[in-house]
Amino acid sequence: MNKVEFIDMLRRHISEVGDPAFISDTIDYYQDYIDTAIRKGRTEEDVLNELGDPRLIAKSIVASRDDITGSGYDRAGNAYSEAAGEEPHREGHYGGFADGAGAEGRPDYGVYDGKLHIRTRRGKNISLPLPLVKVGGAVAAISLIFGAGYIAVQLLPVIGVGILALLIYRFFKDNF
Length: 176
Fold this sequence. Notes:
A four-stranded antiparallel sheet has the order 3-4-5-6. A two-stranded antiparallel sheet has the order 1-2. A hairpin with a 5-residue loop joins strand 5 and strand 6 (125-129). It has five helices and six strands; from the N terminus they run ααααββββββα. By secondary structure, it is an alpha+beta fold. Helix 1 packs antiparallel against helix 2 (20-39) and helix 1 (3-14) packs parallel to helix 4 (54-69). The protein is elongated, with a radius of gyration of 28 Å.
């Protein structure tokens, strides 16, 4: 099987999802993955063997889509119910599961709903608005830069005295 056959078979079997944008994104992902691996010097055959059977990949993708499109929690950890006519949340960068599974199927961390969501080791959920996180990061970076600069300025007299002492020592050592 070559890349074209692999992609065609994947496209045929993933069409069950019914979401053209998702199908296109998935196909683009696999095409890019294969092309990148080939550019890095691997053979097309090796890459396709690594990926495996496109029917199994499609089956796995369709099953995972079924999991996040039913009632419960979407990939971002937001609760919704199709019975109530709600749609799963699809925007943002999703976190992962630090220990393999977050409480109630929610991610342990992530950025969605305009907030940074973190689950602590003790299971407490913390949500911080992104603008606050960005300002906090900028303040921390500036403080670090100015703090290091302040320490350097405070050490200059000590360094200066040390250099002066070294020069005086060498002068007297060489001349007397």
